[in-house]
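Re-run with default settings, no changes from the original entry. Doing this only to confirm the output is reproducible before filing.
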Amino acid sequence: MRLRNQSIKENFTGYLFIFPQILIFLIFLVYPIIEGIRLSFYQINYQNEKFVGLDNYASLFGDPVFFKALINTVVFVVFIVILTVGFALFVASAVFDKNAKYVSFIRGSYYIPVMVSMVVMSMVWSFLLNPANGLISYFSQEMGLGTVNLLGKSQTVLPVIIFVTFATNVGQAIILYIAAMIGVPKDLFEAAEVDGASRWQVILKILIPSVKSSTIYITIINIIAVLKIFVVIQLLTGGGPNNASVTLMYYLYNNAFKYNQLGMASAVGVIMFLITLLLSVPQLRSLIKEK
């Protein structure tokens, strides 16, 4: 009993230190999730609430725009995650063992877009892609190809947004991969060199397995980031043309702040939360098993 009391006293200081973080986590993360789940069962305006059960979810699954937003979001997640992981692995594996100044230059070059506000980057791309006076359209006209309106066609708007989002965020993944690869034990590379392994074999057999935990982390943070994609859609397309670029986050925004359907917006938020869990939990489990 005395040892147990002593253990509690020794740990009490530690509990005091983490209490503010736990309190912030409960107030700003756990409570909003619980409140969002509760609100998804209500029909809400700014004056009263009416319990409607699963009617909000039934309305969502009966709305073709919701399914369009869901499909677009899945497409964004799949392509942006694959592009980010693949390109970041390629760049990092190509430069991680080069001169320190060169590596620093590469990291800084790719990280600049990450540091710039997404609003600013979206405005820059909006200028470049403007069909009337944008730079891309200007060069297209100079080459005799006519006006280019990539954001005004349903066939091209998704690839353009995928590229813009990928180009803006890939720098973070590159930095994480370079840091992880620099930390790989040198003995492994020396042994591979003695065995006559090629650069490609070193990448496949040593580097990629060694940075698996970084790959899982990058995958998870990109899944979460893409599910929350909003600024690019709002500033470049507004969900158009004909809802071709609408995402779950933009659909949630419209229901909450344009149509005053807070209950339906909460239901969309719950579905996004479940999708995030569905995609992230397996990755986290594999990371935990590895460690």
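The two ends are 34 Å apart (CA to CA). The domain at 55-290 is CATH 1.10.3720.10 (MetI-like fold).
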